[in-house]
Write a structure and sequence with these properties.
This protein has about 220 residues and is of the alpha/beta class. The protein contains five helices and seven strands, in the order βαββαβαβαβαβ. Helix 1 crosses helix 5 and helix 2 runs parallel beside helix 3. The structure holds NADP nicotinamide-adenine-dinucleotide phosphate.
Length: about 220
């Protein structure tokens, strides 16, 4: 299942999974597609989960590829003087609260036998330990909150479903709508297809004892 299948990286994940012999079916959810899910509408998340439960699908992989950095109204803050309640509410709503509701409704659907993975796309700039340059208050803080939701859920998941894995993943800088205004020359900007392929290899290699971790597209663990 790919949530945010309309996004740059989400679309690449869906295509890669469709092409993979490892999966019988790919369920692509987004605000605009046939199967609708809006992270700011908890009922839509509940409906999607209920539909999946009813279908009896053997859900081995849930990828949350949603995220928000900027729109017409809000650009990443360069200074604390730009901190704005509506901006923070939007960033936390999409980057942290929505994924937390996905955790609530999707983790119980993971099979108890054999490996399954819930992976949420986070960002290295959400790392508190790695924050050397500041700025981007809402995005950084909302991704740090997402990481905490993932880590906290991993503790409970270990008790309830020993074979399942939950992880926060950093895709690198990828050429999408989200990064486009900020992908300066000199950064290693990669294609969504490359990022999705790399992350699928990381997901494939994840072991239950690594559940709750924060990994980049090379599989390296990132500091919180
Ligand atoms: N691109 C990068 O360089 C980069 C770097 C680090 C981390 N990331 C992370 O990677 C993830 C994917 O980003 P991307 O680069 O693929 O960005 P993107 O192309 O802008 O895709 C973002 C996705 O999030 C969805 N979304 C936004 N608000 C939503 C809501 N309320 N409910 C449901 N879905 C919603 C969008 O749906 P709509 O199509 O309906 O708007 C879209 O599918 C994000 O978590 C981002 O923070 C990206």
């Amino acid at each position: 299942m790919v949530v945010g299948a309309s996004g740059g990286i989400g679309r690449a994940f869906s295509a890669a999974l469709e092409a993979s012999p490892a999966f019988d079916q790919v369920i692509a959810l987004s605000r605009s597609g046939e199967a609708k899910l809006d992270l700011t509408d908890p009922a839509s998340i509940e409906r999607a989960a209920a539909g999946l439960a009813e279908s009896g699908a053997d859900i081995r992989l849930v990828i949350d590829a949603t995220g928000f950095l900027h729109d017409e109204a809000f650009a990443p803050e360069k200074s604390w003087s730009e901190i704005d309640l509506a901006h923070m509410e939007k960033a936390f709503g999409i980057n942290a609260f929505g994924p937390a509701l996905l955790i609530r409704h999707m983790l119980p659907l993971l099979p108890k036998e054999g490996k399954s993975v819930f992976a949420s796309l986070s960002a290295k700039v959400g790392s508190i330990g790695d924050n050397g340059i500041g700025g981007w208050y809402s995005y950084r803080a909302s991704k740090a909150a997402l990481n905490q939701f993932v880590k906290t859920a991993s503790v409970e998941l270990k008790r309830r479903n020993k074979a399942a894995v939950i992880a926060a993943l950093h895709p690198g800088t990828v050429d999408t709508k989200l990064s486009q205004p900020f992908a300066k020359s000199g950064l290693n900007v990669r294609e969504p297809e490359t990022a999705a392929a790399d992350l699928l290899m990381v997901i494939d290699a994840l072991r239950p004892e690594q559940s709750g971790g924060f990994f980049d597209y090379r599989g390296e663990e990132l500091p919180w």
